[in-house]
Design a protein that fits this description.
about 180 residues, 2 domains, 4 strands
Length: about 180
């Protein structure tokens, strides 16, 4: 579940990107910022309360000024000063979702008991695109607990064709008949 603060930051950045016609630039900048904090030493320094803000700004500037826009640097400064630097990956994800929606792209996730090959992923994506009328950006993950079949999530809709759910359904039916 997205945090409210990450959603607020992403909305503000998205609105700025739309107003300035810099949607792709901001996506690249947010990705770069989110990637930068995966460096443990870098993120620890930015989160350290003993390091003065001016020193943090200098470190950020030295590390990122050549690879992101000045406005993206300002976002990094703001998040650092508010102790919210750890929200960057989530902000980037929420921004990507808003950009996808803006472009008419629907995100979907398929969960299967075993890894899907490319042909299976393409088949699921094509089926979802035909039924939704939108371009589909599909992600997949493996969850052996579903036993077989797959569970597909598109937005707030869930299509559960897992063996686990079918077995649970049969169990309930048998219990009701007794």
């Amino acid at each position: 579940m997205p945090t409210a603060s990450a959603v607020r930051y992403a909305k503000a950045v998205f609105q700025l990107a739309v107003d300035r016609n810099e949607l792709e630039n901001w996506l690249e900048d947010l990705t770069q910022l989110a990637d930068s904090i995966t460096n443990r030493e870098f993120s620890d320094i930015l989160a350290a309360p003993r390091v003065p803000s001016s020193q943090k700004e200098q470190i950020i500037r030295e590390a990122l000024a050549s690879s992101v826009s000045p406005l993206a640097l300002n976002l990094m400064f703001l998040l650092t000063s508010r102790g919210a630097i750890h929200r960057l990956p989530e902000i980037a994800d929420r921004y990507q979702e808003m950009l996808d929606t803006h472009r008419g792209i629907e995100r979907a996730e398929v969960v299967s008991a075993v890894p899907l090959d490319d042909a299976q992923r393409d088949s699921v994506a094509d089926m979802l695109a035909r039924t939704s009328g939108k371009e589909i950006r599909l992600s997949s993950r493996v969850d052996p607990e579903i036993l077989g079949g797959m569970v597909i999530r598109v937005g707030d809709r869930v299509m559960d064709g897992s063996a686990r759910t079918r077995l649970q359904s049969m169990r309930r039916e048998m219990a009701q008949r007794r």
